[in-house]
Every structure is written in structure tokens, then in C-alpha cells.
């Protein structure tokens, strides 16, 4: 998981939010020379993500903290497994604890749910992809966590690809008109994708030269019918209402891609904790 400048800013904002005015509890009860040694432990079975971010949180609080990963992003981690060792000044370790765990828990939760979706479609042609429904400021991290879980990324931002949605179609008057305008203006190398909901719209999209069609909010049976109608003339993606208990049915309909906003907007945080031993200051 690469630490981009935006991610470093996010870490700093998170630390300022939690530690900006100090840690009055640790400052009151811990000697400034006290040391802490502990493990970050998975309290459930999970797919790990966010280790480099957690390391950077501890480093930014105090470079004297030693952070030793025992597992890496993308690893399946059994319940009760230690994923990292943390050692250093006790005040600094406890000051960084919550922020580091917040990053690890959110990102591991996304990776864990992504892995579950990927496993649910095994044996089919479908690739599970995410959406732009990410937490503001977290997009690069959320999408990295999706990859750690084995799923793929859709657009990173609005400049990454042409995706004609229902509002674009309404503004242009038709699917055909929207696709033809997009193809005429598209930067070299960008595929044109268009959202359709009916067979007539699919036919329009294919005739206008769309390279990807997005079947939005259709049932698996309708998706299968539209896949047969497309007959390989374009990649077929399905989106809308995709859940873990329905994703297999969409995959078996023969679609190429399944986009699921749930991967990032509905993933429950994974349960990890920092279990430490405190050591009195040496005399």
C-alpha cells in the first residue's frame, strides 16, 4: 500500500484530531521514560490491509517506536493471530494506538469483504470491482484495500474513464446521442461505457460504438438476457443492488464485471487491538 502525499496528509489530520492537544491520561499516569511492548492482534478472522499506514502513524508520533510487521496486506489472518509487534516509549505508543487501529480496522474490513465477494464468484468469468463510493479523502486507501482483498478497481476519479450515466443520457436526449458525442470527444485510450436498463438502450449503445455497457439495477435473469443480446460486442458490467448474497447469481448470468459499492461504503470494520505490556522507567 503506497503512501501518497494525500495519505500522509490524512494521517497528519487524523493524529491532529486525536492527539493534537496531547494525551492527558498518559501524561498524568505514565512516567515519561516508561516503555511499552505489545502486539497488534486480530480479534476475528480477517484479510489484512493498511500495515504501511499503521507503521507511518507510529513513526510520525515518535520515530523511536519500533513497528515490526508479522503479516502483510492481503494475508488471510486467523482469529487470535498477532500481525505486528510494537515497542517504544509508552506515552507515544498509547498516543498513536487508536489512530493506527482506526486505519487498520477500516482497511482490513474493506479487504475482508472484498475477499468474500471474490470467493463468491470463483469459477465464473466475472471480475468484482469497486466504485467511487469511498470515504472522502480515503479513496486511494480504500481502493488499495479492495485490491488487497483480491478485487479490482473501477475509476479512480472522474478523469479515469468515460462512464455515461442516466443524467448524461437525459441531457443528450438518448443513449445513442450520448455515446456518439463521447466517442467523438474521448481522449485517446479511454473506453466509452454507458449505463443501460433496457434491451432497446443496449441496442442503441452497441450501434453507437460503446465498448462497455453497464446494466444498472437489473435482476440476474434480465442481466443474462442482455448478456446474450450483447453477444460479445461489448464488455458487460452489472451494478446496483449487488450484495454478497446476490453476487453469485449475477456472475452466473455471464457478465464480465460486477461493481459493488458495498465493498467500500458498507464494509464493517475488522476487529484488531493493541495488547501491550508497560515497563517502568529504568533507574
Question: Can you describe what's shown?
Answer:
This protein has 283 residues and is α/β, with parallel strands linked by helices. The protein folds into two domains: 5-117 and 268-279, Alpha-Beta Complex (Aldehyde Oxidoreductase, domain 3), CATH 3.90.1170.20; 123-265, Aldolase class I (TIM Barrel, Alpha-Beta Barrel). 43% of the residues lie in helices and 20% in strands. It is built from eleven helices and twelve strands. The chain has helices spanning 5-19, 24-29, 51-61, 90-120, 139-148, 166-172, 175-185, 199-208, 220-230, 247-252, 262-265, and strands spanning 35-42, 46-47, 66-69, 76-77, 82-89, 127-129, 162-164, 192-196, 212-216, 235-239, 257-259, 272-279. A six-stranded parallel sheet has the order 6-11-10-9-8-7. A four-stranded antiparallel sheet has the order 3-5-1-12, with helices on one face. A two-stranded antiparallel ribbon has the order 2-4. Strand 8, helix 8 (199-208) and strand 9 form a beta-alpha-beta unit. It is elongated, with a radius of gyration of 23 Å.
Structurally, the number of domains stands at: 2
Q: CATH superfamily of the largest domain, called what? A: Aldolase class I
Compute the gyration radius: what is it?
A: 23 Å
Quote the average pLDDT: 95
- Give the total of beta strands: 12
Determine the N-to-C terminus distance: 41 Å
Q: What is the CATH architecture assignment of the largest domain?
A: Alpha-Beta Barrel
CATH class of the largest domain: Alpha Beta
What fold name goes in the CATH topology slot of the largest domain? TIM Barrel
- Which residues sit in consecutive blocks of at least 5 with pLDDT less than 50? none
Order of helices and strands: HHEEHEEEHEHEHHEHEHEHEHE
Could you say which structural class the secondary elements and strand pairing correspond to? alpha/beta
Q: What portion of residues belong to β-strands? A: 15-25%
Largest sheet: 6 strands, parallel
Amino acid at each position: 500500500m503506497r503512501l501518497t502525499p494525500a495519505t500522509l496528509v490524512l494521517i497528519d489530520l487524523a493524529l491532529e484530531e486525536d492527539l493534537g492537544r496531547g494525551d492527558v491520561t498518559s501524561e498524568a499516569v505514565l512516567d515519561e521514560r516508561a516503555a511499552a511492548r505489545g502486539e497488534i492482534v486480530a480479534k476475528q478472522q480477517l484479510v489484512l490491509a493498511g500495515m504501511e499506514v499503521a507503521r507511518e502513524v507510529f513513526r510520525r508520533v515518535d520515530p523511536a517506536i519500533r513497528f515490526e510487521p508479522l503479516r502483510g496486506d492481503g494475508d488471510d489472518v486467523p482469529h487470535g493471530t498477532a500481525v505486528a509487534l510494537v515497542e517504544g516509549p509508552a506515552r507515544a505508543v498509547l498516543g498513536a494506538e487508536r489512530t493506527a487501529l482506526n486505519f487498520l480496522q477500516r482497511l482490513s474490513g474493506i479487504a475482508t469483504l472484498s475477499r468474500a465477494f471474490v470467493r463468491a464468484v470463483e469459477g465464473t468469468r466475472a471480475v468484482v470491482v469497486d466504485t467511487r463510493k469511498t470515504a472522502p479523502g480515503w479513496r486511494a486507501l480504500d481502493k488499495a484495500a479492495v485490491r488487497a482483498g483480491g478485487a479490482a478497481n473501477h475509476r479512480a476519479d472522474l478523469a479515469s474513464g468515460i462512464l455515461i450515466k442516466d443524467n448524461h443520457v437525459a441531457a443528450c436526449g438518448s443513449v445513442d446521442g450520448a455515446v456518439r458525442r463521447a466517442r467523438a470527444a474521448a481522449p485517446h485510450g479511454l473506453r466509452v461505457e454507458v449505463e443501460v436498463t433496457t434491451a432497446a438502450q443496449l441496442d442503441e449503445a452497441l450501434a453507437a460504438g460503446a465498448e462497455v455497457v453497464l446494466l444498472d439495477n437489473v435482476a440476474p435473469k434480465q442481466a443474462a438476457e442482455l448478456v446474450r443480446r450483447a453477444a460479445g460486442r461489448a464488455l458487460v458490467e452489472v451494478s446496483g443492488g449487488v450484495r454478497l448474497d446476490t453476487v453469485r447469481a449475477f456472475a452466473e448470468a455471464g457478465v464480465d464485471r460486477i461493481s459493488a459499492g458495498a465493498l467500500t461504503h458498507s464494509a464493517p470494520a475488522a476487529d484488531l487491538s493493541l495488547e501491550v505490556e508497560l515497563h517502568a522507567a529504568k533507574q
